[in-house]
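The authors assume throughout that readers already know how a fold can be written as discrete tokens. Each protein is reduced to its one-letter sequence and a matching series of backbone shape codes. I therefore recommend that a typical entry be quoted early in the introduction. For illustration, here is how one protein appears when written out as sequence plus structure tokens:
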Amino acid sequence: MGSTESTPADAPSGGGGYYGFRKTDGGGRSKDGPAQPIRPKNTVLFDGMDFIQATDTLTQKSKSLAHRKQLETYLRRCYLFESLSGEEMSAVVDAFHKKGVPAGSKHPLMSQGDMGEAFYVVHEGTFRYSKDGVEVGEFVVGESFGELALLHNTVRDMTVAAVDNPATVWTIDRATFRRTLAVVHRDKRSKLVFWFNKVPMLSKLKPEETMDLVDSVRTANFSAGQRIVRQGDPSTTLYMVQVRVFFV
């Protein structure tokens, strides 16, 4: 299970980034009228929408277990990734690929004034960045830059070049990042619909009512030995086991 999160709206028919669209009356109920964006809590706003196909799948680039854990640690330091659930983070880490960068200012990884399309995390070496031709500082192993490119089209405000040789970065482009999260959300919603239809009291709901429930689901973590419910307490929450074994 991942951390507490919101499930986005109807990704299978079109959704992107952290957003989906469905018709709503403002109270969570579907109705005819203009589609309104539904934004989960603790997420970042993207410009525009990415529409995925039902056949779209996750991108997976080969990595060792050590590299996966290392990259996730680095990503959690960046505000853009810190609120991702475990499932989302795993899929995003899968989508990163390693890129070698030649040293020297003649071969910048990115240049001030160019349109940004990718985000970078330093894997090996040191990178020096400058603004208006003046050196400002350095990025070292574990540090990242270029995250605004994942949110929207934006002009790079600095030039970054490798100092060392070899120098490598982990990188992901905006289209892959958005598609990855959209696919994760689409698949998650499909699983929730399947599970709800297995619950007798929920299986008779209308499709739009089921989707309203799906949109309200949160994922919660429980550590070993932690009490989830106590006999005799008022019942206010429906729990569905996603993973692990529980003893009653």
The chain is about 25% helix and 20% strand.
